[in-house]
Amino acid sequence: MKVRDIVEALNLKVLSGESGLDKEVEGCYVSDLLSDVMGNADMGCLWVTLQTHKNVMAIASLKELAAVILVKGLDASEDTKEQSNEEGIPFLSTDAETFETAGKIYQLLNA
Amino acid sequence: MPEALHPYKADLHIHTVLSPCGDLEMSPTAIVKRALARGLDMIAISDHNTTRQVKVAQKIGRESGLFVLGGVEVTSQEEAHCLCYFADDAQLDAFQEFLDIHLPKIPNDEDRFGYQLIVDENEEIVGEEEYHLLNAIDVDIDGIYDEVHRIGGLFVPAHINKGTTSLTSQLGFVPPDLRADGLEINFRTTKSETIKKAAYLKRFSFITDSDAHFIDNVGDVYNVIYMAHRNFDEFRKALAGDDGRYIDTDFFREHKLPKII
Predict the structure, then answer these.
(1) What is the CATH number of domain A3-109?
(2) Quick check: is B259 in a domain?
(3) Which one of A8, A54, A69, B43 is least enclosed by Cβ atoms within 10 Å?
């Protein structure tokens, strides 16, 4: 399954990093502690979070994550989006909360 | 001729009974008395998200020969704790106004979280904070820095090596382009260890403090600040490394202050 398929299935808004929409999604990690993500998220994962600090992009890049999904309608800062565009790691947004978002992704990835 | 510098022992992160997690014994009177008894020259009062215990502590300090720096430990939107220090009452009032706007209006539950009491110099309860002080304010780290600097204060992210509620735990690492006047570490690491692991942090001044919530811990960790006088401007200069002023964060390890029984 590609990032693009997740965007369509969950009706996500693409904030930035469109060139990365064809990346393969290997799994999903949910956490708002960036230190935890740095230690535990696997390469190719989607990352669902409510943190919007630009370190989110740095860690997504470091861990080679597939995409970042911001919940509750949150937006990323301009410099984060710029970096996301440069590195082709999409920032996506949903109005839904984490529980709902993670549940739907779980169903999609385990279908 | 440059002014002579003196070493001042300073513990710049102390909670009072106003912090829900602060022990009931932590009255400003008791803290000042203990700090002096252990040989400190300077402390900072830094309750969670409130400055309302600072002025009485400063009054007690003035009367008894301890310099009390006015401060607060703010919880940022990212839930990273940040120490903020202010020069005078006007700055404290301005920042308190900011906190009152940005702290969520969620009442404190004393049974679960602890009391949030304001006491006077006679240790009489004169008020309390209604809203729970451990919540995050709705302003991010950069926004807090901007407000602190607009007012004229100093911004120092707290215990950056801590596994919870620190820049490192919340954001994975200290942002390389962080704007701050210094960084605080707790006793679990040293400045040289920190810089060895993250060389890009050597541009910052460091402080180290007790983060005392109980009276016996006041002064367990302290800085030795080399400056000309004990005042806010001298402390600012020490953080900036101006005119030869500097802060020694290692001295306390080999020179523990006497315990007070």
Answers:
(1) 3.40.1390.20
(2) no
(3) A8
ipTM: 0.80
**Cβ contacts (< 8 Å) between B140 and chain A: which residues?**
52-53
The closest alpha carbon to B115, from B104, B130, B126, belongs to B130
B169 and chain A in contact, CB less than 8 A = yes
Is B171–A38 a contact, with Cβ atoms under 8 angstroms apart?
Answer: no
Task: Tokens for B82, please give them.
Answer: 């940040």
Mutation for B interface: A33, A47, A74, most B CBs within 10 A: A33
Q: Which domain holds residue B62?
A: 6-254
B214-261: pLDDT as tens digits: 999 999 999 999 999 999 999 999 999 999 999 999 999 999 999 998
Could you tell me if residue B260 is inside a domain? no
A42, amino acid identity? D
Q: Give the model confidence (pLDDT) of B79-126 as tens digits.
A: 999 999 999 999 999 999 999 999 999 999 999 899 999 999 999 999
- Closest partner CB to B169 (pick from A35, A54, A59): A35
Strand-pair category, A45-49 with A67-70: parallel
In sequence order, the β-bridge partners of residue B82 are B74, B157
Kindly compute the dihedral angle of the four CA atoms of residues B63, B213, B95, A79, in this order, to the nearest 10 degrees: 150
Q: Is A104 on the interface with B (CB under 8 A)?
A: no
pTM check: above 0.80: yes
Number of domains composing chain B: 1
Evaluate whether residue B16 is within a structural domain: yes
- CA-to-CA distance for B154 and B152, rounded, in angstroms? 7
**Domain locations along chain A:** 3-109
Q: Cβ separation of B172 and A54 shorter than 8 Å?
A: no
Are the Cβ atoms of A51 and B168 closer than 8 angstroms?
no
Q: Between chains, do A59 and B78 touch, taking CB under 8 Å as contact?
A: no
The CATH number given to whatever domain includes residue B209 is 3.20.20.140
The chain A residue lying nearest B80, using CA atoms, is A33
